[in-house]
Amino acid sequence: MENNEPTLEWKEPPNPVRYKKDNTKWHDIADMLRGRPNEWALVAEDVNPSVVTHIRRGRLKAFEPEGMFDASGQGRNERGYTKELYVRFIGETVAQSETASAPTAEEYRVENIAEAETETASASAPAFTAPDPSDFFNDPEL
C-alpha cells in the first residue's frame, strides 16, 4: 500500500540576511575610475549584492548617468554579501559620441505626417488590391 502524503522537513529557517550600512566613499572611487577608462578595479569587498545593479543603472549618484560604469560582483560570503565588487568606467567615450551625433534644434524638421503619407502613397506602387478569395482554393501549389 502506497502512502500519498507529502513529505515535510520540519526545521527553523536560517537567520535573515541583514545588510550593514555602506560607508564606502563612492564619489572618490568613481573619480579614480574615470582617470583610467576601461580598466577593471576591485573597489570593495563584502558589499550588498544590489550594489552591482545600482552602479550599472546609475542609481548611486557617484555613478550617474546609467551606462557610464560597468560592475561585476564575484562570489557570496556566508552572510550573503558579494565577496568582491569590480567596477570599470566606460562612459565618457560613449556619452561624448552620443552627444556629438545628436541633432541640434536647427536640424530637426517638422512635417505634417498626414501629408507625408499621402505623398508617399501616391508616388509609390499602385494601391493595394485584395486578392480574390477563390484563388486560395484553386491554387495548384496548395
The count of β-strands is 3
Q: Structural class, judged by helices and strands?
A: alpha+beta
Residue-averaged pLDDT = 74
Distance between the first and last residues' Cα: 57 Å
Roughly what fraction of the amino acids lie in strands? 15-25%
Query: Which residues sit in consecutive blocks of at least 5 with pLDDT less than 50?
Result: 93-99
Give the helix proportion (percent range): 25-40%
Helix/strand order: HEHEEHHH
Integer-rounded radius of gyration: 30 Å
Strand order, sheet with most strands = 1-3-2
Number of helices: 5
> What's the overall geometry?
flat
Major sheet summary line:
3 strands, antiparallel
Describe what you observe in this structure.
This protein starts with 25 loop residues before the first helix and ends with a helix. Strand 2 (69-76) and strand 3 (82-89) form a beta hairpin. The protein has a domain at 26-97. The chain is of the alpha+beta class and 142 residues long. It has helices at residues 26-34, 50-56, 91-101, 113-123, 133-138, and strands at residues 41-47, 69-76, 82-89. The chain contains five helices and three strands; from the N terminus they run H-E-H-E-E-H-H-H.
Q: What key phrases describe this protein's structure?
A:
142 residues; alpha+beta; three-stranded antiparallel β-sheet; 5 helices; 3 strands; 31% helix; 16% strand; flat
Brief summary of the model shown:
The chain is an alpha+beta fold.
Helix/strand layout:
Elements: H1 26-34, E1 41-47, H2 50-56, E2 69-76, E3 82-89, H3 91-101, H4 113-123, H5 133-138
Antiparallel strand pairs: 1-3, 2-3
